[in-house]
Amino acid sequence: MLHELGTSPLIFGFLPGVGMQELAVIGVVAILLFGKNLPGVAKTFGKTYGDFKRGLSDIQSEFNNATRDVEGSINNGYSSKSTPAKLDDYDDFEEASAPKFEPPPQSSSEKSELS
Q1: Which of its termini does the chain have fewer beta carbons within 10 Å around, N or C?
Q2: How does DSSP classify residue 7?
Q3: Taking the chain, what is the end-to-end CA distance rounded to the nearest angstrom?
Q4: Handedness of CA 17, 22, 27, 29 (dihedral sign)
Q5: Could you report the per-residue pLDDT of 25-45, keeping only the tens digit for each?
Q6: How do the residues of the chain divide into helix, strand and coil, expressed in percent and rounded to 5?
Q7: Model-level pTM?
Q8: Cα 77 from chain centre
Q9: What is the pLDDT of residues 52-71, one digit of tens each?
Q10: Three-state helix/strand/coil letters over 45-94
Q11: pLDDT-derived band at 51, boundaries 50, 70, 90
């Protein structure tokens, strides 16, 4: 079904939309560029990529620990022994302070025109 839509299946997570033909071209270019050094270059690239992923996972775990600590401190603040205020404890209702609308008095000439 993916081929019907004109897209290739996902082969590698870091190379979205790269199919077999594109990988073959990338392989030929890599062989032409690096030749005999290709195994060493691939090994170095693999180590660098692994270090990068490890660093990202360390950052992610530190972030998760920090958010867990903050959530814990917030939850501990709410679970104190004092009873929380209920909605009925607050009186937000205020009487209207504005005067009611009263139309202006009509003059005698306006009264005669209306009748």
Answers
A1: C
A2: -
A3: 83
A4: negative
A5: 988 998 898 888 888 988 998
A6: 60, 0, 40
A7: 0.42
A8: 26
A9: 999 999 999 999 999 988 88
A10: HHHHHHHHHHHHHHHHHHHHHHHHHHHHHHHHHHCCCCCCCCHHHCCCCC
A11: very high
Task: List Cα–Cα distances, 43 to 4, 49, 51, 54, 56, in angstroms.
Answer: 37, 10, 12, 16, 20
Per the CB < 8 A criterion, the answer to whether 110 and 104 are in contact is no
Distance CA 87, CA 105 (A): 45
CB 1 within 8 A of CB 7: no
Rounded Cα distance between 33 and 42, Å, is 12
User: Which amino acid belongs to residue 21?
Assistant: Q
Looking up tokens 């082969």 gives: 11
Judge contact between 11 and 19, C-beta under 8 A: yes
Spatial separation of the C-alpha atoms in residues 31 and 39, rounded to whole Å: 10
